[in-house]
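Why does residue order matter? Because the sequence determines the fold. Keep that principle in mind as you read this record.
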Amino acid sequence: MNLTGSKKLIVILCLTAVAVIFFLSKEPKFIDVEVVRIEKGEVTETVSNTRVGTVKACRRAYVAPAAGGQVEKLHVREGDGVRQNQLLMEVWNKDMKAQVKLQEFQVKANQATAEQVCQLAAVAERDARRAYLQKKYDIVSEEALDAKATDAKAKRASCKASRKTVAVSEANLDAARVAVERTLVLAPFDGRVAEINVELGEYVTPSPPGIATLPAIDLLDVSCLYVSAPIDEVDAPRIRTGMSACVSLDAFTEKRCSGTVSRIAPYVQEKEKQARTVEVEVKLTDPNDIKDLLPGYSADIEVLIAGKQNALKVPAEAVLENNRVLLMQNDGLLIERIFTPGLANWNTVEVLSGLNADDKVVLSVGQEGVVAGAYARERK
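Structure:
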């Protein structure tokens, strides 16, 4: 090969290399992204609490004796299940019980006296009737008849007074028994003893008005539980009692969706440095949902406002500002699309128009380089 041919070959090789480099530089760089296909399914619109809520018992009683005194007997321990009207605690009351026994004897004594007086009254009334008959035949004088009638009336009055005395003594007995009851602590409902704040021998007194003190016994009804949580004042007007709701708890992974809105507070809470909220209560109705729950657990609620069973939907995390999404075309090009939203929650947004089923929506919208006009491929 002569020198001229060698130069031509070198020029051809250089041009070929330049062309290869040019075309390689024009090939798009693909970014790995997460993609999901738009499909139909259930879409719900929910309202959630703004701050953490709390599981509470439907009935909770902080019970203490109505009268102060020294704790003589504790009939239960923490964790015990109790029945309504079961005796829980007793303050020293031997003097009051003695007074009850005294009043019982007094009632019996007064009853015996009344019986005696009334029997004498009956005899006097019979004597007066006989004297009246005898007067018709002039057997007794007018003065004797008058004396018999007066004696009968006086003894009948004494009988009535004796019976009133019995009634008074019975009322005194009732008062003595009430005084004893003031030293007893009875369970107001079926429940479980959560806490006992007294010991045998300690002196307990009722709480003075306006001064909170620890209750002697904290009693819970754990057969009925609800969640109380604050809802933002903007969302509260959309909630109605009877709406379905789900409850989520930090202590458990699964949601519990047997909840029903049982109460909406009639006022807005105004707390310093906090958003204004309305307290909403959700009652759990399924026994399986109540199982293993304890009052005091932190919980969140989701109240179902509306729902559709077969709606086109897109993940909420894929939606950009002003209802925009990034779609991946078959060649990997990312394009921006605006759609009309419908129902929405934290996870899903309903698509009314602008998108179609099986469109590939990009989830990795916060990833560097993921913008309209870029090329991407689905991450495996």
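Residues 94-182 form one domain.
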